[in-house]
Amino acid sequence: MTQVPQDYPGERLGLPREGSGSIGRLGRRVAALFFDYGAAYLISGFFGWDPLAILAIFAIIQIAFIPTVQGSPGHRIFGLRLQRVDGGWVGLWRPIVRTALLIIVIPAAIWDADQRGLHDKAAGTVLVRA
């Protein structure tokens, strides 16, 4: 399989270089992740700070908000939205697959040239600037 060189992340996907619709960069992605995980951590205080409760609440946040508002609260606050690679609605199953792989961590830490983690590749999604 031959890799086609690209000038910027997302070019192969037909996304713009910058601005709305361009690939969400690392800083925004990490900030959004910390925001969502922090929210899950605070909410879990009602359940005794159980580590499994934190992960469960984090997953619920992701799975509930991604199909309804095109991203988690952290994504939206930091100017990101999640969409299918072809630009369509993510549907109901993609957030579940993406979140399950995100919780495992390793798939999210392995990226391609478009700065998409394996969790996004498996779900057929891309995180872009809103």
Automatic annotation (TrEMBL):
Keyword Transmembrane among record annotations: yes
Keyword set, alphabetical order: Membrane, Transmembrane, Transmembrane helix
Entry superkingdom: Bacteria
Ranges that cross the membrane: 53-71, 92-111
Gene Ontology cellular component annotations, sorted alphabetically: plasma membrane
Protein name, as recorded: Putative RDD family membrane protein YckC
